[in-house]
Amino acid sequence: MTSAVDEVPLTLGEAPPKTLGFLDQGAFWANLGVSLLGFSGALYLLDPLGGAPLSMVAAVLAAVVGSLVGTVMVGLAAIPGARTGAPAMVLLRGLFGARLSYLPTVLNIVQMLGWGAFELWVIANGAQAVFGDSVPYAVWVLAAGALTIALTLRPLGAIRLLRRFVTAAVVVAMVWLAVALLREAPHLGGGSWNAFAPAVDYVIALSVSWVPVAADYARHSRSGRAAFAGVVTGYTIAQVACLVLGIVALALVGNDPDRVWNAFVAVPLGALFFGVLVLREADQSFANVYSTAMSLQNLLPRVDRRVFSVGVGVLTTGVALFANVNSYGAFLGVIGAVFVPMFAVLVVDYFVLGGAARWDTSQDAPSRWAMLVPWLLGFVAYWVFTGAATLEWWDERWAALRELIGFERQPWMSAALAAFVVSALATLLVGLLRRRARA
Ligand SMILES: Nc1ncnc2[nH]cnc12
């Protein structure tokens, strides 16, 4: 069976069409930057350590800094995809070798399944906030799952749909809701700068989760520049707007994340415009399911991507139906710890150590075990530096290690920055040693 004209080829063997320009990428990433999860998750930005909320100015600045840092990472990860036409996990064959690329591939599949289930859960709950409980949660999940699967079957068509029709509706909805919420005169005073760095870490994790996904879309870009600029501009503006709107809405409901959507629905025409955002949330689950399918193609390149999309879509729907989706904060902590250092290794090897010219992304690319070391060191650094709570037994292990080495973490320390610096320097060292060994 052949692919539709200007659609993603069905298997990895065929060349991808390169038809997406800056506006397509920008609109797509702007849609990904607005999320209903961002509205309730804004509490992690406002009060990442629990009990030490940021002032409004500090929170907005943390949103801007975290989004810019995170999206520059995503934008840089997109460039090799645009240059080579390879999907994200296939590119990692160049960094780690074909076999070892299975490790980040599996990690990405797990995070995308997690995100996808979160998204279907959020769409169903958002729909119930608009329409009430007369239609059960499970019916909304099934409907959202079906829409998600339909979008993944024609991914480039879905991206064009977003640019032509959805983006304008989202902008109107966001502006309307922002004005209406501000007219309710929320109390936005108080707070401090104490938890600024953990707040930036949270926002970085929100964006950096797209690092192992970006090339799946950038591979269809007309240029690396269009992909980079589209990601950074679209996602940063949208994510900052979304988080700030979330903070304003939270202020109206006593910072109770379980009631944040009520604030939106309660304003004039709120149900209509919030409904637009609920429907549009399907772009997120689309990206999650489609990228899981692309990741699976790194493991099984000859399988039709639509088979994977349908299977993953059904599985994600099942998880959203039956799983208890409530450990968002811990989930984000793990994502930051895994993908920030992986990004550091990728960007140093590709842009600084000459990977752009020598990466072998074929199916028999030799393993590069040494590249796992800087990644692992960055992962460790993240947990040593982070103050965010995840699972008790896990946090206790890292507290014990801190005590053992006599390290006392300070509130101003950023785990993402520490992980990045450690992995980047370690990658440079590995590169230097390799050159010495060759000379
Ligand atoms: N649905 C999602 N998938 C991946 N990364 C995300 N960051 C915020 N929302 C996301």
TrEMBL record:
Parts of the chain that traverse the membrane: 28-46, 52-79, 100-123, 135-153, 165-183, 195-215, 227-254, 260-279, 307-325, 331-357, 369-391, 411-433
Protein's membrane topology: Multi-pass membrane protein
Keywords: Membrane, Transmembrane, Transmembrane helix
Compartment(s) of residence: Membrane
Pfam family, one: Transp_cyt_pur
InterPro entries: CodB, Pur-cyt_permease
Protein name, entry field: Purine-cytosine permease family protein
Family note: Belongs to the purine-cytosine permease (2.A.39) family.
PANTHER family: CYTOSINE PERMEASE, CYTOSINE TRANSPORTER CODB
Gene3D superfamilies in the record: Hydantoin permease
UniProt source species: Sphaerisporangium rhizosphaerae
